[in-house]
Amino acid sequence: MALDTAITNLSGESNAELRHYADYNMSTDIEIRQMTPRDIPAAMRLKELAGWNQTERDWMRYLAFEPEGCFVAVRAGIACGTVIAQRYGTDLGWIGMVLVDPEHRHQGIGTRLLDRGLEFLDRQGIETVKLDATPEARSLYLARGFKDEYEIERWGGIAAPKQNPGIRRIEFHDMGRICACDAMVFGADRTRLLTALWQEAPEYTAVAHSGGEVAGYFFGRAGSRAHYLGPWVAGGNGELAEQLLVEFLSRAAGERAFVDICLENPDARPMMEAIGFSHQRRLTRMYRGPNRSPGKPSMICGIAGPELG
To answer: What stretch of H or E contains 153?
Structure first.
């Protein structure tokens, strides 16, 4: 049935339903297949069009962690969209890097990519899936059964030189306790991710102890647009959170930096204002499923990144 005929026959339906039908038909020439390393240049082009901060190393990490959960949408041999779906332990899945070329938007491609990622996680038996939604995409996720959990804000600015508090870098022997602490705070095991972040940029890590236990830590990395702080955790200790922040700023002195703060933490926003960073955007942490292990977001100052949780 031709599209114009179909729309005439559906004239009693709502505009939204007509748009959905049209979008579906316009995306039927799209192939969604598993991503490979050869797709990274195209994926970088898409994230540049979106103004995001990821690097080729980030894409390689996604593919190394979950090669069967990374997908690309292709039209006429050209990549026009991406999505990654990855697992944290056996109970939590994460959706990220939902990108569609601006010239191919509003054609149902993002929806099909999201569905492919969700299908992958469902096949793995993952009961809860989370993501960080932009305001523009939130309605798409709501339609797929996601619910709001809490708000996140990106802040950015130049890391001004400050006196270094002297908090030491993370060493290999610290990782076991840090990962155990992070699992309690985040709500799932991120050992694989944290180990990779430590190996990639040990100079942007720090850990503080109290009574022999991990009291706070951060990981960081270099992005294509700015250095990134996160995850940044201080166990609800505002003074320690500030010390960790100053430590990171000292390490990245003079460079542009981004932090995605968790608004469940009452100290995070005042600290961003105090160092002169400016608000960039807002995201909504969303979940689908029972969310049996929500973690302790009030202890999280900065997340690992919208694509990582």
So the answer is: strand 147-158
User: pLDDT tens, position by position, for the chain (309 residues)?
Assistant: 333 323 223 233 344 443 443 344 456 799 999 999 999 999 999 999 999 999 999 999 999 999 999 999 999 999 999 999 999 999 899 999 999 999 999 999 999 999 999 999 999 999 999 999 999 999 999 999 999 999 999 999 999 977 778 999 999 999 999 999 999 999 999 999 999 999 999 999 999 999 989 999 999 999 999 999 999 999 999 999 999 999 999 999 999 999 999 999 999 999 999 999 999 999 999 999 999 999 999 999 999 999 999
Asked if the domains at 3-126 and 153-302 fall in one CATH topology, the answer is: yes
Q: What is the pTM of this model?
A: 0.90
DSSP string for residues in 222-251: E-SSSEEEEEEE-TT-HHHHHHHHHHHHHH
Judge contact between 175 and 159, C-beta under 8 A: no
Ranges of each domain in the chain: 3-126, 153-302
Q: Does domain 153-302 have CATH number 3.10.320.10?
A: no
Q: What is the CA radius of gyration of the chain?
A: 20
Amino acid present at 180: A
| Tokens read off for 154 | 């990106």
Fold of 3-126: Aminopeptidase (3.40.630)
